[in-house]
Write a structure and sequence with these properties.
By secondary structure, the protein is of the alpha+beta class. Helix content is 15%, strand content 29%. The chain contains 7 helices and 30 strands. A 6-stranded mixed β-sheet has the order 12-13-16-17-19-18, with no helix packed on it. The protein has a 5-stranded mixed β-sheet with strand order 11-10-9-20-21, with no helix packed on it. The chain has a 5-stranded mixed β-sheet with strand order 23-30-29-25-26, with no helix packed on it. Strand 9, helix 2 (149-160) and strand 10 (169-175) form a beta-alpha-beta unit.
């Protein structure tokens, strides 16, 4: 009977010993352009440093001390007026792992052994030009979902290269599913993303997991080896960004993952939000949406969502950015889901950079159409943050002008005098329930269009073409069309003259008016 007692004592004592570990270092102002802290580079006071749970602030000389345990990552929460120094891979250098023996052996490598050194963990920040009074812009990508070098080439030519040197963003993010299960592609895709020239922050998705890991704790080892902490905060221009791993890996579960948060993440959130001024805009970036994707089961654990909502309820300016769905929609959380804030909580589920997994017919440039199942073209979002904490989100279809916000479908020809049972459909990519969408024919009076929940006919046409083709039209066919949450319909008049007629559609989005044009033809026919 002595051996079990002794074993129990050892198990109790081991965490107590580990709890006594500490990490120390300095946050300093980078000024000499060389790696490491130079003799004349001064420490920065009052900068937040975290181990993923506790948060401390640097003293007058930039020094910090934090408790540390095996597996934690220490990182700096940069203040508004600073910028992270770039690491050798071009990504922000703001973190350091502590895993003396490294992660378990994994297919994609995991985290290498760090050793036991815990002192002189110094982090460099640069002074940054303050955001203008008008605010700043952020690039928001989701689900680049690259499965191979060919997909990375699509990503480069379709999403990144067209905006290199042409955007005005101060930072950017990718909201998970950076790859499509092949984690060895991270260096290659990072070389593309960093061409954009701004600090880029990542969150993990369900396709970024080490599927050979035995538990959730180890399932992001290879992702973390490249991107650092899976839950962290960044401050910019009066806004606070919290990036969250919300994929809970369940190796023996069905499905093998679910949306949710860990206890250490709640501890970090509680500690960070406790000291955050309530007037700041708070932006949460995550992969799996907070709303349920399926009516018959929870895709994000409701208990975790309730806890998160309780932490956020006193902040009047909150935006949630999510990905994962490969569709696009606005969602407003209310009391039915446990939201306790004064106004509904806005979640914007961002369309995928890869669209429908780089599928569909290729264009003249050899890039797949990639339209998503709700009829949204692949692309990315822009988040404009105002100086007063307000915000605006916009969508950009890949390689298309900023004015491309509406896609139309109408029959090419109808019989003159036929019963007007046929419609023009407007897919307003950023449409939400509270906007007005109108149409007119031949410059006549504007008429309201009716919001409908059905598949976009434009994509149904592609589905039928794929079905009837004798050979594959692309590597992967377009996705099966699903009901779109941003589709409007108007009945086309048939009592006009024989010939061609013009249809104008307009919609107001975030204070800007957008239009689209199509035509149809009326033809005389005898019985």
């Amino acid at each position: 009977m002595r051996y079990p007692i002794l074993a129990s004592l050892l198990l109790v004592c081991a965490p107590l010993a580990a709890a006594g570990l500490q990490a120390t270092g300095t946050v300093y102002l980078e000024s000499d352009g060389r790696p490491g802290r130079g003799a004349g580079e001064v420490g920065l006071a009052d900068v937040q440093v975290s181990n993923g749970e506790q948060i401390v602030r640097t003293d007058a000389r930039g020094r910090w001390t934090l408790p540390l345990r095996n597996g934690q990552t220490v990182f700096v929460i940069k203040p508004d007026d600073t910028r992270y120094v770039a690491a050798a891979d071009g990504l922000p250098a703001f973190w350091r792992h502590y895993l003396p023996a490294g992660s378990p052996k994994l297919k994609y490598g995991g985290i290498a052994a760090t050793g036991t050194r815990r002192g002189q963990w110094d982090f460099a920040l640069e002074r940054a030009e303050p955001a203008s009074g008008a605010g700043f812009q952020m690039l928001v990508f989701s689900d680049t979902q690259t499965a191979n070098a060919i997909d990375i080439d699509y990503y480069a030519r379709d999403i990144v290269d067209p905006i290199v040197g042409k955007h005005h963003a101060r930072l950017g993010t990718t909201l998970g599913d950076i790859t499509n299960d092949d984690l060895s592609l991270y260096p290659a895709i990072n070389r593309v993303t960093t061409r954009l020239g701004v600090p880029w922050f990542h969150v993990p998705g369900n396709h970024d997991l080490d599927f050979d890991a035995g538990n959730d704790l180890d399932s992001l080892s290879s992702w973390r080896a490249v991107y650092g902490p899976d839950t962290y905060a960044v401050e910019e221009g009066g806004a606070s960004f919290i990036f969250l791993d919300d994929v809970v890996y369940r190796p023996q579960g069905t499905p093998g993952y679910i949306g949710g948060l860990r206890e250490d993440q709640f501890t970090f959130l509680e500690n960070y939000l406790r000291a955050l001024p309530r007037e700041r805009l708070l932006v949460l970036g995550m992969h799996i949406p907070l709303f349920d994707a399926y009516p018959d089961r929870e895709s994000f654990r409701h208990a975790d969502r309730t806890r998160l909502f309780a932490l956020l309820k006193d902040f009047p300016k909150v935006l949630v950015l999510s990905g994962h769905s490969h569709t696009q929609r606005h969602y407003f959380h209310g009391a039915d889901e446990g939201w306790q804030g004064a106004t509904p909580l806005h979640e914007y589920n961002v369309g995928a950079a890869c669209g429908a997994f780089w599928s569909g017919v290729k264009d003249a440039a050899g890039i797949p159409d990639a339209t998503m199942s709700d009829g949204t073209p692949n692309g990315y979002a822009l988040l404009d943050v105002a100086g007063d904490g307000g915000y605006r989100v916009e969508y950009r279809a890949a390689r298309a002008p900023a004015t491309t916000q509406i896609a139309l479908h109408a029959p090419r020809v109808l019989r003159q005098g036929a019963y007007p049972a046929w419609g023009v459909y407007a897919n307003v990519f950023m449409g939400r329930d509270d906007i007005a969408v109108e149409f007119r024919v031949d410059g006549g009076a504007w008429q309201p269009m009716k919001k409908v929940l059905q598949p976009d006919p434009r994509l149904l046409v592609e589905n039928v073409a794929d079905d009837l083709a004798d050979a594959l039209r692309g590597f992967d066919r377009s996705p099966e069309a699903t009901p779109s949450t941003h589709l409007w319909r108007g009945a086309i008049p048939t009592d006009l003259a024989v010939g061609e007629h013009r249809i104008d559609v307009r919609a107001s989005l975030e204070g800007a008016a957008f239009t689209a044009i199509t035509t149809y033809r009326l033809q005389h026919a005898d019985p």
